[in-house]
Amino acid sequence: MRPGRPTLTLLAMLAGFLVIPVLSGDGVTTSNAYDVSQYFASLGLVALALTLTMVAGEFDLSVPATYLLGSMVAVKVGGGSPLLGVVVAVLAAAAAGVVQGAIVAKLNLNSMSVTLGGYLAIIGVVYLLGHSKTVQFDNFTLGADLDQARLFGVVSLRALIAFAVFAATGAILTATRLGAELRAVGADRRSARTAGVRVDPVLIAVFATSGALCALAGALQGFALSYAEPTTSTTSLVFAATSALLGGVSLSGGVGTVRGVACGVIALSLLQELLAVLAVSDYVNDLITGGLLVVVALLSAPDLLRRWRAVEARRRGIEPSITTSQGAA
């Protein structure tokens, strides 16, 4: 996906969000804008976490589990001190990321198989911590404060925290060599090593950061809802992957920006709220979101058009030779 396409995608989705409800007899209110910002607050950091691993040429399937782990740990530990709950949740998820990253880097294993195992293991820990039940968080005031509309009457404190993390991550990757090293590792690992990039520490740090970001998002979500619930849902993974692809992140690695994935998250959030405004059925929502993911994945596939043209050229080249040999016979 070209660099400017995430912005164009966002603008197109925004236009649809503003126009389609009016044409259907409905309208867009500030509460709808608030809902969009809440989508960003809930799952934006999960999309950012997955994006970092994708830019590094990997794919972290454990993000839904670490998201739930962050929620469960924060709710259980943060009764007396919410900040302590967040810190413990982030450290626990980061440690899980370090383990997964070390296995991927040191043993040169496929990240999808490793993180699938990590997903199952972390989900098991979540169920164990919660005793397979919903765990309540009694500090309802904190949840109300986190979700109260503040900026322009449509952006909550939780959304502002997510935006701040996006801004900080983008600044770090732009102002330091970490961004270039991350893209180098994703683009060509052998060349990156030749250029002096310490590939293994970069990969380990990426998975640790992925876990930490997911846990932070999960912790804030748990506080906002005032409960944590063990589940095997992968909705957060689908949202994150679709947002990353809409944001111009390449499936082959080495390509992607924080700004782009932010555009992708907001664009997908607009779509989700638009479908809610139109009151479509859940299965229609799933069909549209899933179809969008497939289409964007195909458009983002590396060299897809070139390979298709090559196949067509070979097929056309074979057919004349067969015809010629039959004529000679």
Topology readout:
Elements: H1 5-23, H2 30-55, H3 63-77, H4 82-107, H5 111-130, E1 135-136, H6 140-147, E2 149-151, E3 155-156, H7 157-175, H8 178-187, H9 189-194, H10 199-225, E4 227-228, H11 235-246, H12 258-277, H13 282-300, H14 304-328
Antiparallel strand pairs: 1-4, 2-3
Helix pairs in contact: 1-12, 2-7, 2-10, 2-11, 2-12, 3-4, 3-5, 3-10, 4-5, 4-10, 6-10, 8-10, 11-12, 11-13
Summarize the structure.
The protein has 14 helices and 4 strands. It has helices at 5-23, 30-55, 63-77, 82-107, 111-130, 140-147, 157-175, 178-187, 189-194, 199-225, 235-246, 258-277, 282-300, 304-328; strands at 135-136, 149-151, 155-156, 227-228. α2 runs parallel beside α7 (157-175), α2 (30-55) crosses α12 (258-277) and α3 runs parallel beside α5.
Query: How many whole angstroms does the radius of gyration measure?
Result: 22 Å
Count of helical segments? 14
Low-confidence stretches: 319-329
Q: What structural class is derived from the secondary structure elements?
A: mainly alpha
Note the overall shape: globular
Largest sheet: 2 strands, antiparallel
Q: Which whole number gives the mean pLDDT? A: 88
Task: Provide the spatial order of strands within the biggest beta sheet.
Answer: 1-4
Helix content: over 70%
Can you walk through the features of this model?
- It contains 14 helices and 4 strands.
- The strands form 2 sheets. The protein has a two-stranded antiparallel sheet. A two-stranded antiparallel ribbon has the order 2-3.
- It is globular.
- The longest helix is centred in the middle third of the chain and has 27 residues, at 199-225.
- A hairpin with a 3-residue loop joins strand 2 and strand 3 (155-156).
- By secondary structure, the protein is mainly alpha-helical.
- Helix content is 77%, strand content 3%.
